[in-house]
Amino acid sequence: MMKIKGLQRYGQLKNPYRKAIIINPIMTGGLVPEKVQQRLFEEGWTKIGYSVCFDCLEGRSSLISKPPVRQFLNDVAEFFGGDRAEHTFGCRAAQFAVMKTMKNFVENEGSKDYAKVVITDPLCHYTTGIAAEATGFRLVEPPHTGYPEYKVNAEGFQQKIEEIKKDTGKLPGLVAVTHVEPYYGNLNPVEEVGKIAEEYNVPYMVNAAYTAGVMPVDMRTFHADFLTVSAHKSMASLGPLGFLVTNYGWAKRTFQTSKMTTGWSGRAFGKKIPNIFGCSVGGIPLISAMSSFPHVVERVQRWEEELEKIRWFIRQMEKLDDIMLLGERPHKHHLLHFETPIFWEISKRHKRRGFFLAEEMIKRGIVGLHRGLSKHIKLSLYGLEWEEVKKVRDAFHEIAEDFSKKLNLGYAVTDVTDEHDEEGGE
User: Fold this and answer.
1) Which structural domain, as residue segments, surrounds residue 57?
2) pLDDT tens digits for 143-184?
3) N or C: which terminal CB in the chain sees fewer CB atoms within 10 Å?
4) How far apart, in whole angstroms, are the C-alpha atoms of residue 87 and residue 61?
5) What CATH number has the domain bearing residue 96?
6) Which of 270, 299, 328 is the last residue of a domain?
């Protein structure tokens, strides 16, 4: 029999980073505002897992009117330029729903014209690949430009469409592009690709996991049929929660309700949507997204201010010898990937090896760098105040200067003081 005493460790969990500045790119856009956090506790929303389900009448959380989930989903669809939205178990579940929809379409209505092939960008998130694999699609990728920018051109998608036509006599079943890819933070040419997909009459999905909720996103300008969203990555929400937004043309297929009847009992599940596993998240993630939505709508309007911080910080980091931003310039997203040879050289001589950098940052109240990495680092400053941005800058410079002198590495650290330090920005 399991001893209760040994299980007490689970009831005494502490968060050592609760007061730290967070710079992890998958976290910064999902930080829940303090006022929303307080509200969630004050209203007792954290008391039970099924917190939105008390007044559910139809057996599906997206149809609930008290609290106003149905209206919220309408507002989400409108905010992102779509006609219909359903909440999902994360963005990956939204992508799966799209792929499952296209699988059914290709195997039935579109079998003469479309192949079970998805064209996607070569730096797509792994969940795009998993969704394709789970639904029987083959992935095809156009190339990127390689080091140091890793950019993708829209023309590459057109070339792949033509190749698939030549090889199979059919069009690809779906074009799926990551709005901003998760490796270098490049903004992909989603509008141009959307026009190409539209010309060929190929269904088109944009994965906006890193963008929808932090910067302006309108699927109509992308010419997209589907938009997949991560609430806990980019909409100031607890997770797991995502959204699938689509247009009227695809909504009926994508959100088609269950048609089955069980063989012996004769039960039916007529309000459930198979593509999103019947009924999606009905608890605190959904409530947190609803509570944060006004904040999200407002902050998107300040995206240019975020870009100022991002580009200022890039210049400050590159004052350290040989540190260089990878990805496109000027940079258009908060996910930053730096090549950091100075920290790599320090790690070779440090007893903690590659772990030293993340640990030194944690000592300074900053968390989010991937432990063990020093040759390359990814980070995000999204949502930070200017003083916090400067604190992050100062931490990197201090670590570089201290260890360069201590280890006699001979790296130069340029004085970081400039006129913007007095003003608080650019």
Assistant:
1) 43-299
2) 999 999 999 999 999 999 999 999 999 999 999 999 999 999
3) N
4) 9
5) 3.40.640.10
6) 299
Does residue 336 share a domain with residue 324?
yes
Q: Which of 286, 281, 280 is nearest to 238 (CA)?
A: 286
Whether 74 and 216 map to the same domain: the answer is yes
- AA identity, residue 139: L
Q: Are residues 337 and 263 in the same domain?
A: no
What are 294-307's pLDDT values in tens digits? Answer: 999 999 999 999 99
Type of residue found at 162: E
> Which position has the token pair 């590159």?
318
Angle at which helices 284-300 and 34-42 pack, to 10 degrees?
150
In a domain, 24, yes or no: no
The total of structural domains in the chain comes to 2
Q: What is the pTM of this model?
A: 0.95
Distance CA 91, CA 227 (A): 10
Rounded Cα distance, 281 and 287, in Å: 10
Q: What angle do CA 71, 306, 400 make, to 5 degrees?
A: 135
Last residue of a domain, one of 282, 299, 316: 299
What span, in angstroms and rounded, lies between the C-alpha atoms of 236 and 22?
Answer: 14
pLDDT tens-digit readout, 197-249: 999 999 999 999 999 999 999 999 999 999 999 999 999 999 999 999 999 99
Q: Is residue 23 part of a domain?
A: no
| Structure-token pair, residue 121 | 């960008």
Q: Which of 253, 278, 281 is nearest to 59 (CA)?
A: 278
The DSSP 8-state label assigned to residue 116 in this structure reads: E
